[in-house]
Amino acid sequence: MRERDDASEERTGKQRGASGCACGKDASVAYEACCGRAHGDANAAAALAAEDVMRARFTAYVVGDAQYIVSSTHEESKDRARESLLRDAENTIKRIRFHSFRAKRSSEKDGEAYVTYEADYTQGKGRGKMKTLAERARLRRDAETGGWKFVDAVALGANASLDDAGDAAAPGAPDPSRRPM
């Protein structure tokens, strides 16, 4: 079983509530039967669609599972190459409270996938102003497991369309103060 930060049980209960897994895919499905399976079982994680990997990464931040952020990051990712990825994920878990996830568009083709999404969050203990992170994430198939893994993401600017189907990333500068999902 993976270790989670001290506040993970409190955060899990508050943010999932009785409405199911924090990923928002199906309010009738509990965390344990949804993203919890991917967090605790590498085979279940490898079987996920690209959109579901991003949902599971979001939920990992909600429940305090920094190790899943590391294990779901592709070895070719610039983030993965950094020795501090686990520490960065742990710091994000402590500093940011993610509240909701909305997948807007996803596509999978030829070993690469794109997922455009929005995630609502607050900084600190959740008392700050609600903000929305809008990104287009790129994932690749892992050579060893065949599963989708996060490579990188581009923050979408205020003028970018969340339904943009093109392969080129929409304009927008990433916020350097936060880690990508």
TrEMBL record:
Region annotation (Disordered) ranges: 1-22, 162-181
UniProt biased composition (Low complexity): 162-172
Protein origin, superkingdom: Eukaryota
Bias kind Basic and acidic residues: ranges: 1-13
Any one Pfam family match given in the protein's UniProt record, by short name: YchJ_M-like
Stretch forming the signal peptide: none
Domain YchJ-like middle NTF2-like: from-to ranges: 50-153
Protein name listed in UniProt: YchJ-like middle NTF2-like domain-containing protein
Source species of the chain: Ostreococcus lucimarinus (strain CCE9901)
